[in-house]
Amino acid sequence: MPEIYATKLLSKFVFVKNRFDFLFQYIAPEKKEKLKRFKRWEDFQRGLISDVLIRSIICRKLNIRNFDIEFRLNKHGKPYLKDNNFYFNISHSGEWVICVIDKRNIVGIDIEEVKKVDLNIIHQVFHPNEVDMFNNFDTSVEKKDLFFDIWTIKESYIKANGRGLSIYPNTMEVRFNRENNIRLLLENIDTNRFFKQYKMIDGYKIAVCNYSSNSFPEKVILRDLDEIIADIK
Q1: Which residues pair with residue 108 across a beta bridge?
Q2: What is the DSSP letter of 26?
Q3: Across the chain, what does the average pLDDT equal?
Q4: Which of 30, 127, 135, 165 is most buried, by CB atoms within 10 Å?
């Protein structure tokens, strides 16, 4: 069964320089160079916390020392762990970084902060049937809620699939049934993938895609920075 971990970002005033320097020494040189190019503090912190979070999980679950961890990228840029049957995916938005792992199945995850969005873009990212469903809602709150439900489900599939932007969101259709099960069609063909939504963090939408199993955890495991540091040291 997959496991899902989440970490909340620290404020700029809490994330002091000595803690930054400490974490920075535990990531790969190429990641350090990438982070140095970020101009916004929030983007830098999300990138750093994302990297050390998955490293801490790998250290704990696979009993691998941090400096022995080697990541590779597939042809679409999706990272994977070298020489291990271990699948993971990371997402971040707003104040949160979230990660899903599985030792057997390909997985993908997306988290999005529910905030103001230009709903005029729905024709670019929604399937025509989804647009019809969207137009049946009366209030902007309901429409915004549906937008992020559909968007996170599609993103979780795209991220699990590993093909990135080669899949156009408006070629996919999300369908909800009365049992609250989720189906995703790609170019009108059922993908036969499994999905679960989590509403455990106020103001955020979370969706997970499991490629081969309808098995999902009930809860998201919250980890603080001290726990992460203890695992990667």
Answers
A1: 209
A2: T
A3: 89
A4: 127
- Name the domain count of the chain: 1
Residue range of the domain that includes 25: 3-232
- Cβ atoms of residues 87 and 161 within 8 Å: no
| CATH for 83 | 3.90.470.20
Tokens of 151: 């968007």
Whole-angstrom Cα distance, residue 223 to residue 69? 20
CA angle 37, 43, 49 (to 5 degrees): 105
Which of 69, 62, 70, 82 lies closest to 3, judged by CA?
62
Nearest to 25 by CA among 43, 51, 46, 5: 51
**In angstroms, rounded to a whole number, what is the distance separating the alpha carbons of residues 137 and 134?**
6
DSSP reduced 3-state for 51:
helix
Looking at residue 13, its pLDDT comes to 47
Predicted model pTM: 0.92
CA–CA separation, 174 and 200 (whole Å) = 21
| Nearest-10 crossing angle of helices 140-161, 128-135 | 150
